[in-house]
Amino acid sequence: MSVELLNNYAKYDGLVNGVDGMCKTSITSNDRTIIWIMFQSFKIGTLIGENFNHYYNNSIESKWTSIEPIINNIRIDKSPSFLIPKIQFAI
After folding, report:
1. From 85's CA, which of 1, 30, 32, 79 has a CA 20 to 30 Å away?
2. Which residue, among 13, 7, 59, has the nearest Cα to 36 in the 3D structure?
């Protein structure tokens, strides 16, 4: 599946608005999902990928970049005690 980054996820690593890539797979473990994307330039996302070297194996290639979810809490009805987590990926 072809994807495009929607916000400046990590500008220092080339992960900015409009960068095209191909979604290769996703991994969910311990209620956490990581999406793996292969970008057109292998220089994009190389620094982010260093945090997930332990995932690289026969099914996850080292030229793929990991994208983690962005989690924000949304307050409902202006109540400080009623928060709902909003989980999204920047693609």
Report:
1. 1
2. 59
What's the pTM value of the predicted model, to 2 decimals?
0.67
Full domain range(s) for residue 19: 2-88
- pLDDT (0 to 100) of residue 50: 60
Please indicate whether residue 21 or residue 14 has the higher confidence score (pLDDT). Answer: 21
State pLDDT tens for residues 31-88.
Answer: 788 888 888 887 787 776 666 666 666 677 878 888 888 888 888 777 777 888 888 8
**CA 72 to CA 84: how far, in whole Å?**
8
Number of domains in the chain: 1
Q: Is the dihedral of CA 74, 12, 17, 29 positive or negative?
A: negative
Burial (Cβ within 10 Å: 0-12, 13-18, ≥19) of residue 67: buried
Q: Which residues of 38-56 are buried (b: 16+ CB within 10 A; e: fewer)?
A: bbeeeebbeebbeebeebe
